[in-house]
């Protein structure tokens, strides 16, 4: 069987999916369909990876005590981050909702297995960071698959990676890349929340193609 033909209607729908992929912080308590979760993980496993290493390791965090400890890590880091701004900017920062840790029905910690032997090191001898970049690609595939199924995803980066690794008792060679909150969004918006709440305007430089 040859490759599928992607017509204009599909391309337009795909562009719409990209546009509506938002970082979600407000979740309904409804449980996530386990079949949808498995399908999103399967999509993540189709991501490109350096040397076909597939170094991503998804950990579902269900234990309430571990969730609470990770939420405490967020609170510490969030308070410290606010102290790095002047008074006016700090007040605006503190008014933002930057995580859905207390509401999201699903928490997923995504690690890079730095000790993986898969791929035999191909493609990363001179750029070892591409192993972690591969995990980011898997997160993006998961995110788009979730959005297509009506789920929202929020990437929580205001955390202590070593602390999270210890809380979850994963191997020492696993490096935290992403902590994801997953669930059904309370609200839908086309624009990013940080733009909507006046934290920053869109930076157009990312849409430019630089020539050399």
UniProtKB/TrEMBL annotation:
- Per UniProt, residues of the Nitroreductase domain are 19-184
What Pfam family does this protein match (any one)?
A: Nitroreductase
| Molecular-function annotations in GO | oxidoreductase activity
> Which InterPro entries does the entry mention?
BluB, Nitroreductase, Nitroreductase-like, Nitroreductase/BluB
Tell me the superkingdom of the source: Bacteria
List, alphabetically, the PANTHER family matched.
Answer: NAD(P)H NITROREDUCTASE RV3131-RELATED, NADPH NITROREDUCTASE
Q: What is this protein called?
A: Cob(II)yrinic acid a,c-diamide reductase
Organism name: Methylobacterium pseudosasicola
